[in-house]
Amino acid sequence: MRVLVLFFCFSSAIFAQQEKDSLLTVEKDTIIILNDAINAEENPAIFKDAELKSIDSLWSVSKFNSPLIDTLEYFIADKDITGNTSQILTTDLLKKRLSVLNNTTPFNLAYNPALEKVIQSYLKYRSRYYPALMAKAKYYFPIFEQYLDQYDIPLEMKYLAIVESALRPKARSRVGASGLWQFMYGTGKQFDLKISSYVDERLDPVKATIAACKYLSKLYTTFGDWDLALAAYNSGPGNVSKAIKRSGGFKNYWNIRPYLPSETAGYVPAFYATMYIFNYANEHNIYPELPKFFNFQTDTILVKRTISFAQISKVLEVDEETLTFLNPAYKLNIIPYIKGRNYAVRLPTSKVIDFLEKEKDVYALADAHDAKRERPLPKYFEMDKRIRYKVKSGDYLGKIANKFGVNVSSIKRWNSLKNSNLKIGQRLYIFPKRI
């Protein structure tokens, strides 16, 4: 069995994103220990056949047969961790702390050796990265908590964004999963996240959080368990449903864990470990850095014409790095003006009045730049309604791409295809372009 170890890649200055998924090997006896520890008294109630059929129906009807998330490469095979990790805290103390957390959360934070190994590894090899990560959390967590509460989702789910993206709003996996919550293209569209030549709302902290809440709510409705909802968020409801069946119908995450994809087997422990460290950071002498901004220190203003970060920066004397941080959804550092779209710029509150007073100057500068531009700005376009295409005899990706005026690579990305092989009757999601 292999357990994945979280890699906090929140700054390119700290370390580069890995090119390939790599895994942390854990001795096979870990699972044996886990299975031995699960006795008859600890076994939860199991799903009956009728309940399993209901689960299958729920997630199929909800159109979640394609995965929402392709894991960002936050996992590494650190050679220093593959052996036995020396204890940063004692097993008894960890058990007590996990018990305290377990009593305050709907997640199953009961102690087990696999979880201890992950926590010990994080504390030993990753503790120096947490202060900067916690500074980001001070900005993003209030946003997450507002909508998690609105959708009646446990507030602890905010730690999921750390596991997914290390709180990097522009994080992108090698197959195109993007943003704080790592939405794939097709599912982002399914949850109303607009993606155009100028804007990718998967990168918008507020809109992506709302979409993630909607998806997590659906998953909880399907499985009735937050641990299983977490697993399904990573691997898709289909894989969780199959793992339940293969385990004999158990609905406890730790019981079905051996039957889940290897990346998901490490995904939920990564979430638990993150929750533990954030709650007991002080006890491990981990203290957050001061964030550059708190969310309440910012505000938004609708724009009345297309303007660039550079133009705003020059007139308001606010650096472009700040504008990029506060407005990650704008792909070209340009805020488009599109009728009916209400695109806005987020600014430090100290600059809001300045913008209102100098708004005409910003637009005048934009007019002057447009007059001197050798080539016009790229046209705004966004993907139209998706089409669910059924593969026919004689079809191949190039033929389908030509039919709809899209790229082969886009079709593969939208449908998480690892190669170009197709089967007759296979369903593909297509998003034709409209200019």
Q: What's the domain count? A: 3
Helical stretch tally: 17
Question: For this structure, what is the CATH class of the largest domain?
Answer: Mainly Alpha
Report the count of strand segments. Answer: 10
* Radius of gyration, in angstroms, nearest whole number: 23 Å
Any idea what the shape is? flat
Calculate the terminal CA-CA distance, rounded to whole Å. Answer: 49 Å
Mean pLDDT across residues: 80
Read across the widest sheet, the strand sequence of neighbours is 1-2
And the CATH topology of the largest domain?
Answer: Lysozyme
Indicate the percent of residues in helices: 40-55%
Model description:
The termini are far apart. Helix 2 (49-61) runs antiparallel to helix 8. This protein folds into three domains: 2-284, Lysozyme, CATH 1.10.530; 295-372, no CATH class; 384-434, LysM domain (Membrane-bound Lytic Murein Transglycosylase D, Chain A). The longest helix is centred in the C-terminal third of the chain and has 24 residues, at 349-372. The chain has 435 residues and is mainly α. The chain contains 17 helices and ten strands. It is 45% helix and 7% strand. The model is unreliable at 1-45 and 56-85 (pLDDT under 50).
